[in-house]
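Good day; I would like, with your permission, to put a structural problem before you. What I wish to show you is a protein chain and, alongside it, a tokenised description of its three-dimensional fold. Please examine both parts with care and let me know of anything in them that strikes you as inconsistent. Thank you for your consideration; the sequence and its tokens are set out here:

***
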Amino acid sequence: MKQDRYPTQLYLLIIPVLLCLLLWIAPIPTGLSPTAWHLFSIFVATIVGIILKPLPMSVMALAALTAATLTKTLTFAQAFSGFSNDIVWLVVLAFFIAKSFVTTGLGARLAYFVMTQLGKNTLGLGYGLVTTDLILAPMIPSLTARLGGIVYPIMKALAEIFTKDSYDPKVGAFLSTTAYQGSAVTSAMFITSMAGNPLIVALMKEQGIEITWFGWALATIVPGLLSLLIIPFVIFKLDPPTIKKTPHAKEMAFQKLQSMGPMRFAEKIVLLTFLLLISLWIVGPHVGLNATVVTMVGLMVLLATNILSWKDVLEETGAWDTFIWFATLVTLASFLNQLGFSTWFSSWVTSYVETFPWHWGFLLVSLIYFYTHYFFASNVAHIGAMYTPLLIVAIALGTPPPLAALMLACMSSLFAGLTHYGSGPAPILFGAGYTTVKHWWKVGFITSLLNLIIWMGIGSFW
């Protein structure tokens, strides 16, 4: 079977390679240096390769670094500078801590508890899944791990009750789309709730805009909670399940909690560690404590108490995989900016929208950024390709820098809800088979309009 797959992979790999070569030999635009244009060629090919996935994302990332150093576009030290970035290490360390949340069973316990409180009816069940994700979001930066590893199994178990015993597949459609759309919102609410958010913080910093963990959370709390309140209800009304009451969902959750017994010592240690981390992330900027150092402290606590072993850390392949492609995208985006490409691109776009009042110009920039996600299968790839240039354009139009940076940052999570391939967990929930592509895309588009109204309207004033 593996031999049959290789030709397809090679065909797909030809596309980014040819694209890189064509851009490389194309006339260099006025105002750009050859080095900047060549790095752009490598960068575009990398993004296309990540979207097409002829090879794993990290392999494409390493290929990009190989090409950059082989062609002397970047020196070796420059190409691998992102691997010492503190934001990159923050994400990797958070993966290790998230593992303890899953392995000790604390995540499942929390999920079942929420179900006992909000599982009286189908709509409440949807709110229960969203609430569970909201509680987990500040602590688990991997959206795929959080939604696919913790929320999805609960959603699947609940949906199966109705599709088998009562045969109402609409419940499964409602729960899966609600959980996914809710995750797009919760991912926008905290720096530590989506792997791309720390990348955004790093890109903001290069434009002279700095934001703390607490500052991000405070800015997003009102539009975020409002979206989480409205969206499940709207999805429920779009295609309402036949079954409205779900008393057996609460009973199942109670039974699961009873079978788990009282909270074990390991779970208590993990819970206290998470509370410590959140507290230090909030006060850290005021006492000069780096967020990455705080996360290192949390990991040391878990290792010292044997909640995690060093073998657990070494075997967390998702963390090390993220380390490679994340560091690579940070590097490429950073040097594109340093070499002047972002400034050139922003000037080019600004020339077309500079006559607009900044309100309308920023709206246009935001819509371009949001709806181009139809062409991306990764939040991080989209962020790496478009966040910095469009941020520069928005600021050049006269948009207040903090507003521009944060609004585009929030959209970097919200646009994931558009398609069934928009982010890591999308194929997982869609693959459960409870809904169609047409329904998923319809829900995604309607939800996108609601989110834009809430976040750009009420969110801007907040």
Remarks:
- The chain has 22 helices and no strands.
